[in-house]
Design goal:
The chain is of the alpha/beta class and about 170 residues long. It has helices at about 5-15, 150-155; strands at about 40-45, 50-55, 60-65, 70, 80-85, 115-120, 125-130, 140, 145-150, 165-170.
Length: about 170
Amino acid sequence: KLDRRATTRAIERALRSASRTPVRPVFRITRPKVTKRGFGPVVVIRRESKGLYLFERGKLVRVIGVATGQAQYPTPIGTFSIVDMQMHPWWYPPDSEWARGLKPVPPGPGNPLGTRWMGLSAWGVGMHGTPDAASIGYSASHGCIRMRIPDAEWLFQRVRIGTPVVIVSA
């Protein structure tokens, strides 16, 4: 943190002495103010490594294997947040060539979203379960982050709307 009083004195001394040497600001080391509760949860997704990392209070809680987007439908990189959470969601076909002619799928067996949906602030992208557990570990989705249904149900209990989701390429 800038020590204003000490920096002001250093500037005044330089002005009184007509010194032409640079005046360096004076800083002091401060500790961050963290509440006892800390912060969290935070989700970090490593797109190429196919891993979802849940942190709570700055500590790694769990790593979950995921499937990410195919090359033509990549999972976006950036910092997002959870904006929508649904239990037993409907799947609606996106306005995309690959989905042409597909019909909505109600909750239940075979729903591509599994039993939980956690929509991100990246349009049309979310974290969700999948009935296709064999896709985990691959680039298999249309941009979403897929996980096994039990993992999606576990994660759903630990995040909330507003939870940060950081997606990196590693």
